[in-house]
Protein 1
Amino acid sequence: MIKVVLLAAGLSVAAAWLAADGIRAALPGAPSAPLAARATLEEPRAGTATLRADADGHFRVDATVGGKRVPMLVDTGATVVALSHEIGEQLGLVSGLDRYDARVSTANGSVGAKRVVLRDVRVGSVKVDEVAAVVLAPGAMDGALLGMSFLGRLRRLETSRDRLTMER
């Protein structure tokens, strides 16, 4: 039960951030940088990746899930990796016949989700196998969140000002 509550809280915070980015982008005089802009990725040595925050202070990265590129927002408040329905389809994790029988809370209310296990998730040279995740029902969320089911399995996760360092 506590895991569901933590997942719900993390998804709510992340959905609010994503919604706020969209609202800011629509305002007159808003910066013209696209939402898809990624944090800078540095790899000082194998098994370590350092992200630099983007202009909004978020850590966005192009992760690799099962060999396929997936843009993600790093979210330490999300219990698990969370994927939109569209990304889940692209990765072959869901189909039109699937049931979304897990319930999670987002900024837009309670939504259905399907629990999945990702074969592997990689950020630069940092790789974690068998990562718990959820695919949200159609229309529940855009994008993907890199949550604690990946981040919590790292040897080190450290933030310092505008840098986030991951070590496996």
Protein 2
Amino acid sequence: MNTVLQAHGLGKKYGRRWALSDCTLEVPAGRVVGLVGPNGAGKSTLLNLAVGLLTPTSGTIEVLGSPAGTSQRAKIGFVAQDTPTYSRLSIADHLRLGAGLNPNWDDSLAQARIQRLGLNPKQRAGRLSGGQRAQLALTLGISKRPELLILDEPVAALDPLARREFLQDLMEAVAEQELSVVLSSHLVSDVERSCDYLVVLVDSRVQISGEIETLLATHYRLSGPRRDEKTLPAAQHVISASHTDRQSTLVIRTDQPILDPAWTVSQLSLEDLVLAYMGRAVTPESRPVLEVQR
């Protein structure tokens, strides 16, 4: 599998506090990857390490085949949290700045996007709406013609209509430029709408990664008479379990048929799957990456 990002034992420490520790991850090329996890899981720290804004305290991270923060920066587009822009600069100033800083800058693409969005190039960024600032940041990110586009919760503060428009524009850019994308989000609906690959990060550790279609086809909810999950067949890996006096409800992963007639079997939504993995207790034993592919 070709990868655009690889981390091994990656950690970042601030004073006595580890914002990210012992993270091991591989992100495949040619995918739109949804990176999800609870607050404090280390998602933003991981992405800032990937683009070279932070340096690791421990471990290694490579992006596009080279150590993060080296000469491949021109090949990476980055839209940070809150889609930061320079409030006193106009849209035209931002495009000129992008052209001056990026050797592969596509000015025709940038100008066409600004015109299509109906934005006034003379308007200052500080007077744009949140959705317009997000679109300006996305324009800057894709107009440098990157190989990898990294988005750190770029639509979290936007209203539903602005989120939808941003993600539609992102999907058009992916189709036109054949980008690899890593999109961090706490909104599973956004991941479901735009991503084809999922990574769930909890306490710096990857709990599951794989094609979303395959993940949904290999995870099930079982409901039936109370049972000790240890009695299940070896091919049925229990992700979460809850019990009442008479009934058990399990979320399992398996690529084998479920033949026990005592179970009522149902498929999971993507949100159900993500929550099941986010609710797992993270222990040293849960460290290995679970990767599911066709």
Protein 3
Amino acid sequence: MRQAVNDPLPGYWSWAMGRSEPARILRFAAIGGVSTLIYAVLTLAISARHGFGMPVTIASIAGYGAGAVFSYCGHRFVTFMSDGAVGFEIVRFACATALGFLVSVGLAVILTDVAGLPPLVPVAIASILVPVLNFIILRKFVFVAAR
């Protein structure tokens, strides 16, 4: 009989996938972190100053859209483990995403196109501000059936 491999973090994975609020925050941070990374890397990779020559405002739209798709799936199935109505949640998620989108694009327009700052500045600010807003909105407004 084969001996089981010792779990280096006993009980951690079962805790992390549990329904406690600290576990939910950990999962939110992981999903949000990857989503934010998708946004930031894609935006910088295709922007004029760092990549393929696209204006940073347009690059921000593409980056945010890609991050939003990952974010919805990750938060619905992993963070909040929601069994709510998809039609209800996706409309509310779209509203929350639109708000975050407007914040990130607005920052890009104002700070890069108008103020002339490098694209890294609005991307960094959006990468901090939008996740904080998203947790509050997703928890209180979008995935309410997950409670």
